[in-house]
Design goal:
By secondary structure, the protein is of the alpha+beta class. The protein has helices at 12-20, 25-32, 39-45, 51-64, 85-88, 91-101, 115-125, 177-183, 190-194, 203-211, 220-234, and strands at 67-71, 79-83, 135-141, 149-155, 158-162, 171-175, 198-201. It is built from 11 helices and 7 strands.
Length: 244
């Protein structure tokens, strides 16, 4: 963030916001957590960000040492953006922010989910079970085209996500982002198949993966606290308490 728009405070929180507090910055970080991306890939993942805004964020993050630009060797021979080692340290912060915000229901405008965001949910909320055998999967999210192809390897220790799918996966899951998100935590594939998903190979590997992804849901007490807080904010001030 340019110095003239900074908070000018020595507090670590303020200094951090000076670096990643500008609009789109943390979402750029989110999109690079699973690996490097081209500018066009970032545009696809952040469709409402203007090219100028995206360019500005990438330049500012690069100047701050969070992101770097790199030229891939042939046959790729394209420029990509990737997180530096310091930038990768933002992952637990981004994940914690996302988990905290799950207590707030999405608005009618908050519908789009990027492919990487959906796959980060698997890596973040996969609950490993020592007795559960591991497997490798290829996941294709049809609504994201080539950007929606991923490799997933889950073990008793956790889930690994990569943009490069395995050559011989135990199973291939072809579905949409919405159907995948709806299937998290489900021990039955019937709903996923009814939504038009195709499973090639071992369906048990798909079932084990999805059943182990437990995205936190707001508790009833959290919803009630939010409702009470909203109602309190809407009430007119108590004039009696303002009498001096």
């Amino acid at each position: 963030m340019p110095a003239q728009r900074g908070y000018r405070q020595a507090c670590g929180i303020a200094r951090g916001l000076d670096i990643v507090g500008e609009r789109w910055s943390l979402l750029v970080v989110r999109e690079l957590l699973l690996g490097p991306k081209r500018f066009t890939d970032l545009q696809q993942a952040l469709p409402t960000a203007s090219p100028n805004a995206l360019s500005d964020r990438l330049r500012e993050l690069a100047d701050a040492g969070v992101v770097r630009r790199r030229q891939l060797p042939p046959p790729g021979n394209v420029r990509v953006y990737e997180l530096t080692a310091w930038g990768r340290g933002l992952e637990p912060i981004v994940v914690a922010l996302g988990t905290w915000a799950l207590a707030a229901p999405p608005t009618a405008e908050q519908l789009f989910v990027s492919a990487d965001s959906a796959m980060l949910a698997i890596r973040t909320y996969f609950v490993p079970t020592p007795q559960r055998p591991g497997a490798t999967l290829r996941i294709e999210l049809r609504d994201h085209g080539p950007a929606g192809v991923f490799g997933v390897r889950f073990t008793p220790a956790g889930a690994e996500i990569a943009h490069e799918p395995p050559e011989e996966p135990d199973a291939v899951l072809i579905t949409t982002t919405d159907a995948l998100l709806a299937a998290f935590g489900d021990d039955d594939l019937a709903g996923l198949v009814a939504a038009g998903a195709a499973i090639i190979g071992d369906p048990e590997a798909v079932r084990r993966l999805l059943a182990a992804v437990h995205v936190p849901a707001p508790t009833e007490s959290t919803r009630n606290r939010q409702l009470r807080s909203t109602e309190a904010d809407r009430r007119p001030p108590d004039r009696a308490r303002n009498v001096t």
